[in-house]
Amino acid sequence: MGAWNPGNFSNDIALDYVSGIASMDDLKRPIDTVVSGLLDYIDADLACEALAAADLLAGMLGRPATDLPEKTQDLLSKFSEPSADMLTLARTAAARILEASELAELWKEEESQAWNDVIGDLIQRLDPNTAYKSQESEIPVEGGFICSVCEGIIPDSDMITVEIGFPNMPGITMGTYFHHSCLEANFKPPYFSSEGSVEDALKRQIERFLLSEDNNRKES
Ligand SMILES: [Zn+2]
Question: How far is the CA of 34 from the centre of ligand 1 (A)?
């Protein structure tokens, strides 16, 4: 690979691939190939293409990567917004690549955490139900966190953060954020153990809540 930076558009394979995209099928192809389960091994070129494709989908949701090439803006505006199924496939592809692929092995030898963070951020940006937090604003700016229940902005003093897992994606977590009152109105206590850690029962409740929100969205 010519360029060596953790961003999904910061390598030559991804850029070559992006410059050749003409249709939604071109976006689907590498994602489908990764998710198909037909491959024994996901090589680095395929992984770079699938991650670039997934990150373009995030761009279509209005959640672009910081290194999204400017010329892709025109391209993205030609496509309709990706379906919920397509986004699920893209999240699964990214999680598989993170879990076991040639690219993951290559990054293990380098500054793996930076790359892991890029992929974790991508998975979060691909989920319309998660609060969108750009890579550049790790430290919440004013109004940085959105309540998972009411979608209102949470003042720091009123914020409860709960890390939950993705169903079927072991090892990957995401932060969910709540107003105190929204948490109490929607979920049963106990919320925290005496040591202050989040109760597993609360995490399960939140996962079910997010899942049912997801289903409502599909039905509407
Ligand atoms: Zn709220």
Answer: 37
pLDDT at 141: 46
Of the candidates 116, 12, 27, the one whose C-alpha atom is nearest the C-alpha of residue 69 is 12
Dist. CA 105 → ligand 1 center (Å) = 40
The residues with which 179 forms a beta bridge, in sequence order, are 159
**For residue 153, what are the β-bridge partners?**
146
| pLDDT tens for each residue of 110-145 | 766 889 889 999 999 999 888 775 545 444 444 468
- 24 vs 42: CA distance, rounded Å: 22
Pull the structure tokens for residue 90.
């893209």
Convert the pLDDT of each residue in 81-95 to its tens digit: 899 999 999 999 999
Do residues 52 and 21 touch, judged by C-beta distance below 8 A? no
CA of 57 to the centre of ligand 1 (A): 28
* 6 CA → ligand 1 middle, Å: 34
Ligand 1 center to residue 84 CA distance, Å?
A: 24
Under a CB-based contact definition with an 8 Å cutoff, are residues 10 and 3 in contact?
yes
Ligand 1 centroid distance, CA of 210 (Å): 14
pLDDT exceeds 60 at position 209:
yes
Question: Structure tokens of 30?
Answer: 């590498």
Q: What is the pTM of this model?
A: 0.61
